[in-house]
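Students often ask why we bother encoding 3D structure as a string. The short answer is that it lets us treat folding as translation between two languages. Here is a chain of 342 residues written in the first language.
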Amino acid sequence: MTSSSEALAHPASSAEAASGGQPGAAGGAHGRGTPPRGSVSWRSRLYRWDMKASPYVFIAPFFLVFGAFSLVPLLYTAWYSLHDVQLSALDHQTWAGLDNYRNLLSSDFFWNALKNTFTIGVISTVPQLLAALWLAHLLNYRLRGSTVWRVVMLTPYATSVAAATLVFTLLYAWDGGMVNWLLHFAGVHPVNWRESDWGSQFAVSSIVIWRWTGYNALIYLAAMQAIPVDLYESAALDGANRRQQFRHVTVPMLRPTILFTVIVSTIGATQLFGEPLLFGGVSGSKGGSEHQYQTLGLYMYDQGWIIGNLGKASAIAWSMFLILLVVAVINMLLTRRLRKSS
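And here it is in the second language, the structure alphabet:
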């Protein structure tokens, strides 16, 4: 028994001798180039902290700016909408509860501004998006100087609202305007574009159409260029011409983009302010002598900065915000429906 146990222990001793003759020599050789355990744990903790915290540090500036210039004013406006606050006495606030909102719902001027916002939005959005879709379809084919045409499409968007509105004000002038001059040759009596109901709304809508058609056309063009060419080739093999390809291939593939532009244009129409204000001149904040093109943005400006009733103006601002929330919900429902149908 003794000899057998010595024989079994002999290979282990020979292995120790081969590895250096001392037990643990191999472990010492393995740990010779490694740093101390405390340094490894500190670096690993720093690495894990960096991986977890770095993304939040990178996006923190956006949330700080958003909180300072968007969230805080939004909450402060909500607080003002529940008080009776005058621009001339900001320190004297009287709790009003929901009285400002009740006054809005019973005000004919509010419903008139809401109606004008809706009609101007429809008149400006529908032709604008249809024209943008048609222009993008033309630019999608190989044209000479396509880059130049794309820059030309974006030029109205780069033009300031004041400059564009000034030009259109001269075009729609009652005496000497080019539009009435052309109507005279067509046998139509001159139109007082500032004083008429539909004429003033059409004039304001034309400014919006001119400024935003090229911008939406470039969005549609980018979406069209992302459509696989194989779909057009398959449609061509089936005998479809360009019009049929546009109807059965391009438009269905552009449904999400079209929905996006509709929502963005609706938001822009709800917040419409600069064009009608500058078009009206002296009575711009009133939306004309009869409030015929006064939008919600103009109504809020008139109540807050002309009359000085900041409480009511804040209630109008929050009403516009609630309308935009409804638009966002409709957008979400339509997007889900499109995804299910596709």
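Translate back mentally: The first helix runs from residue 2 to 18. Keep this in mind for the problem set.
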